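>> received
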Amino acid sequence: MISFGFTRSLILEGIIKCLDMVYEPRICLINPPPQHHIERWDTADYPHIGLGYLVEYLKSWKYEARIIDGKFERIDIPDIKHRLLLWKPDIIGITAMTHEIHRAARVAGNPKGSVP
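>> returned
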């Protein structure tokens, strides 16, 4: 006899697999640009490795994922919003350290206004 909990988990697994086949979200991970270029670590010499790991993991599961690294690419918030408008991701993730939270909030400002 199969317990209800086991049957329910099989049903949920099947639903998730069906959704994955029908709906493959586009995912964009963002590292916001610095407020000011005062200290040497305000501009990065290398891409954000944590976002790189996450994007590669998502790609291994066949999701379409990209990174916009404002620090490494030395772009500003309007450029980030322009890229979001061009690519139209379904899911947007933003990373920030505590002292960068205001810039992250400006990037997050109204992503649906930028991306319908």
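>> Residues 23-114 form a domain with the Rossmann fold fold (CATH 3.40.50).
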